[in-house]
From TrEMBL:
GO terms for biological process: DNA restriction-modification system. It comes from Niallia circulans (Bacillus circulans). This is Restriction endonuclease. InterPro entries: Restrct_endonuc-II-like, Restrct_endonuc_IV_Mrr. GO terms for molecular function: DNA binding; endonuclease activity. Keywords: Endonuclease, Hydrolase, Nuclease. Residues 162-265 form the Restriction endonuclease type IV Mrr domain. It comes from the Bacteria. Pfam families: Mrr_cat.
C-alpha cells in the first residue's frame, strides 16, 4: 500500500492538534480507528501535535499501520463537527477539517473509498439478481417437469418423479430434504423427511387418480405416532383430498398438514415461497386446527 502524501499527513496532525482540547477524547478517537494502545500510550505525555506526529510515524512502518493511517484519515474526513466540545478555537478546528477533506478529495482518497463502496454494493446487487434469476430458472424447470408428469401414463413413474421434484424444490428453498427410504426394520416406507422451524416432518406423496382415503391417511398418522412425539407430517396428494376425510384428521392432536397439486403449482409459479407456504399451513393448523388451509388465500394476502 502506498504512503499517504506528506501534505495529508501534516494536515492530519493539524486536525489532531486543533480538533481536540483534552487528550482522553483524542486517545478514544485513535482507538476507534484501531490504533494499538501500545502506540497511543507510548507518546501520550507529549504535546498533542507531537503526539499525533509520532503515532502516524509509527503507523507508517508496516502494511497494517498504513491501513490504520487511512482509517484515521477516513474517520477524520467523516467528522461533521469537532469531536471534542471543549476546543477553545472551534473555527480553527473546523477549518483544519475542511482543508483535510479538500486534500483527501484532490488526492482521490475519499473518492476512491466511495467508489469502492459503490462497487461493492453493485457486486452485492448483481449477486442477488443472479441468485433470483437462477432460482426462477430452476423453478421453471420444475414446473416443466410437473407439467410433463400430468400426461405421464405410467402413474408409478409419476410418483417417483414427484419424489424427485419435492427434493429439488425443498433444496432450492434451502431446506435439507431426504428422499424415499425405509425404516431400519424395513417395515415402513417413508416418502421423504425434512426439518423445518425446529420440527421434524415425514412426507407422504401421492400422484394417482384415486384420492387418498381415511385408511391411507390413518396409516401415515400411525407412522408419525411410532416416532418421537414432536414428529409432524406433510401429506402431498396432487389430485387433492375429500373434505370429509380431512375432517377426520383435524382439530385437537392433529400432526399432519395437507397440500394438493394446485398449491404445489402456486409454489412452482413463484406466487408464494415454499417456506411461507409451509408456515401458513402450520400456523392455521396450530391456531385454528385446520390442517388443509388453502394456499391461494396466503398468496393473495
Amino acid at each position: 500500500m502506498k504512503y499517504l502524501p506528506y501534505e495529508i499527513i501534516e494536515q492530519m496532525i493539524q486536525c489532531f492538534g486543533k480538533c481536540f482540547h483534552y487528550k482522553d477524547p483524542m486517545a478514544s478517537f485513535m482507538r476507534s480507528c484501531d490504533v494499538p494502545s501500545l502506540i497511543i500510550n507510548k507518546y501520550r505525555d507529549l504535546p498533542k501535535f507531537v503526539w499525533a506526529r509520532r503515532v502516524l510515524e509509527d503507523l507508517s512502518i508496516n502494511e497494517d499501520g498504513l491501513i490504520i493511517q487511512r482509517k484515521l484519515l477516513t474517520n477524520l474526513c467523516k467528522l461533521r463537527d469537532l469531536p471534542d466540545k471543549e476546543v477553545l478555537d472551534r473555527n480553527a478546528g473546523l477549518d483544519a477539517l475542511r482543508k483535510l477533506k479538500r486534500l483527501a478529495q484532490e488526492n482521490d482518497f475519499i473518492i476512491k473509498e466511495e467508489k469502492e463502496k459503490e462497487n461493492i454494493q453493485k457486486k452485492v446487487n448483481q449477486e442477488k439478481l443472479t441468485l433470483v434469476l437462477q432460482r426462477a430458472k430452476q423453478l421453471e424447470e420444475l414446473r416443466t417437469l410437473f407439467n410433463n408428469c400430468v400426461i405421464e401414463k405410467n402413474r408409478q413413474k409419476a410418483g417417483f418423479i414427484l419424489e424427485d421434484l419435492l427434493k429439488s424444490l425443498f433444496e432450492l428453498n434451502d431446506i435439507e430434504y431426504r428422499k424415499s427410504f425405509r425404516t431400519t426394520e424395513n417395515t415402513q416406507q417413508i416418502d421423504g423427511y425434512f426439518r423445518f422451524d425446529g420440527f421434524d416432518y415425514l412426507v407422504e406423496a401421492k400422484w394417482r387418480k384415486e384420492i387418498p382415503n381415511v385408511a391411507e391417511i390413518a396409516g401415515f398418522k400411525y407412522k408419525l405416532e411410532t416416532k418421537i412425539d414432536s414428529t409432524r407430517g406433510l401429506f402431498v396428494s396432487i389430485n387433492g383430498f375429500r373434505e370429509e376425510v380431512i375432517k377426520e384428521f383435524s382439530g385437537k392432536g392433529t400432526k399432519i398438514i395437507f397440500m394438493d397439486g394446485h398449491e404445489l403449482m402456486l409454489i412452482l409459479e413463484g406466487r408464494i415461497t415454499l417456506k411461507d407456504g409451509l408456515r401458513y399451513k402450520i400456523e392455521k393448523a396450530v391456531q385454528l386446527g385446520e390442517p388443509n388451509s388453502p394456499l391461494y388465500l396466503a398468496s393473495v394476502n
